[in-house]
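Hey, can you fold this one?
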Amino acid sequence: MSNDVRYSTERNNSGGWVLKWEDFKKTFPHQQPPYSGRGWGGAVHSMCSYQGKMKPSLAHHLIHCFSEPNDVIVDPFSGCGTIPFEACRMGRSGYGIDISRLGHVLTLGKVGNPSWSMVEQILCDLEACIDHYKLTDDDLSSTAAIKFNGSIPEYFHSDTLREIIAARGFFLSSWDSGAEWALIYASTMHLLHGNRPYALSRNSHPVTPYSPTGPFEYRALMPRLRAKLDRLKLEIVEREPSFGGSVQGDCTEIWPAEIPAADVIITSPPFFASTRFYMTNWMRFWFSGWERADFDVRPADYVETKQRFDLNVYRKFFASARERLKSTGIMVLHLGESKKCNMSAELALRVDPWFSVADCFTESVEHCELHGIRDKGAVTGHSYLVLVPKLS
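Sure. Predicted structure:
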């Protein structure tokens, strides 16, 4: 239900977002066919599975409500890039910021403008690297130290493990080298674990890798990777020429200079005391560069950790967002609500002096499913906090 906060008069309402937003709150279009289908949005949205991913249909309707074609849309907690990519699909320019290497790679893989001839060249270079790679004792000991739901060597046939370690080194040695690199990197990460023939691992969950089961079986990386890219190619090559970018960075500090001034900011920060992205996506964090010690040290830098102790971390976020949002812009936060914390209410207390609250609305999600599992966790509602810049 909606609370008593009224729309601000400070916002230039020429875009008509109020009427579209009121319709959203009455009809929940993302819950209606065809948008309610699990596969809605196309293959690129599913480039790599990711725990905590926003449904593409929800991103679609938020972008429809609050933006216009050719707008610049920024998601400073971009995760796997759902919002920036959907913005590009809808004729906007979508940009993402994420503190994790994983989030940056997945976002850039979707919103970049790859040359397919360059994709083929990188694939040839990757294949040559894999063919010539010799597994070392250090490789085996470092991967054996990564053991959450089983150690990494427990997931893979030894020959497959050698190929995965070779590919990891290949991508890390050419870090952040363009849209083609990110597309191939993100696609490879999707193959790491799962319960279908495309997966490189023994049988495991495709999103969060649970302890593997079944026999060890050699599964070659390159044929599966090429098949994955073939499934993506048609959508990428024939896509309308609307692209964006991604930068790795901490959005609670000064935003990277590569991020342009935004017409609209739409984002979904980590829900309070909910998903720990670095653990639920732990194998893909390893593949994007983390070693065992990183899992002990680096989470302290993440908002999902910081907010448990002090929600005032968002004051820096609001200050940085205001600097990069146009004066006629709007910011929409998709937040979790639970018995532990009503995030929209708490963050609304921290937006001054940069923003005014235009609206706050909560949608019950107790009926929803996530990856086939009924969501009975701590989050009972999704809140939408709509903010407009205060005019100086």
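The two ends are 32 Å apart (CA to CA). Let me know if you want another pass with a different chain boundary.
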